[in-house]
Amino acid sequence: MSVHLSAASKRAASYPARGPEWSTSFSFQTVTGIGHEAGVNRRDPSSILRIDDLYYVWYTRSEGPSSWRKPGYDPAQRIFSWDMAEIWYASSPDGYDWTEQGCAVDRGEAGAYDSRTVCTPDVMHHDGRFYLVYQAATEPYGGSEETVGMAVAESVDGPWEKTPEPILRPMKGGEWFGDPDNYNKGHFRGLNHDPMLLFFKGKYHLYYKCGSSHHPGKPNEKYAGRDTRWGVAISDNPTGPYDHSPYNPVTNSGHETLLWPYKDGLAALLNRDGPERDTVQYTTDGVNFEPMGTAWNTPWAGGACRCEDTDAHPLKGIEWGLGHIDEGGSEWNYIVRFDADPHNSSTCPSYYPRKL
């Protein structure tokens, strides 16, 4: 008897081994100290570090409204909530009640690579030093030529010393399947947004959000959500130089980067954008990711607590953390706490709340 296999069945036959332990949903709670505050934007929280008896987080902070490039906007004024921003930090004994500690990294002087804004930070604690990576832009704000900056400190409270030049600039050229007339396959470029730094298999892996040069950030009718994916750059030293992987982009989906170590590889949550959005994926080489599970109600701009025992469970590395909520058409942002609930992965919770 002949065997009839649909395209879906053929794909399923090639899937990696997976189980329900790779799937989860998320719930959200308000926090104090860095939550909702009129006139203040707090967004893009970093990974969370536990140092001694306190948790620490770094995030984008700005004050006042933004134009969001509305008709007649003034490019000399704040365009987005992450424009003309600073990186601040806060501490907490329990992950719920936070105390804002002040500015960690400010914008650079006129002419510096980060003179316009410093935003979307992430942090790595390695060999006794702290490495803060962040998205940077100079005047004028172009929206596509942001670089990745770095600041280094010996203490969690700073002071932070910036590298004199960016550690990563946008990837130039490249082809996304080589068809410039196809929106989904056009000329590839790196955006260098949402950097995340990890020490993995003896090298430093700097992940970032990237996209194509065809209508970046616009709704994509053929792909689900916006046309974003991830790239990676690798170095032998934490401060660089970093080389873009020739395999970029290394995902076809995902908005903000969120990765954590699991056994001999890295797990990742790809949220919001792309055909494989809201999936948990896994790589053993830092480049080739495979879908392993699904996620519901995923956090926006999630930064998870970097706990030590991430080998205990595939989702241990995103057990809890912080994300942000966009309010008023992304004009106002504030930080909330998320908690993963793997036991609730088979049900569909409410949509991600717009306001708590």
UniProtKB/TrEMBL annotation:
Keywords: Glycosidase, Hydrolase. It comes from the Bacteria. GO terms for molecular function: hydrolase activity, hydrolyzing O-glycosyl compounds. It holds the Pfam family Glyco_hydro_43. CDD domains: GH117. Transmembrane segments: none annotated. This is Glycosyl hydrolases family 43. The lineage of its organism: Bacteria, Pseudomonadati, Planctomycetota, Phycisphaerae, Phycisphaerales.
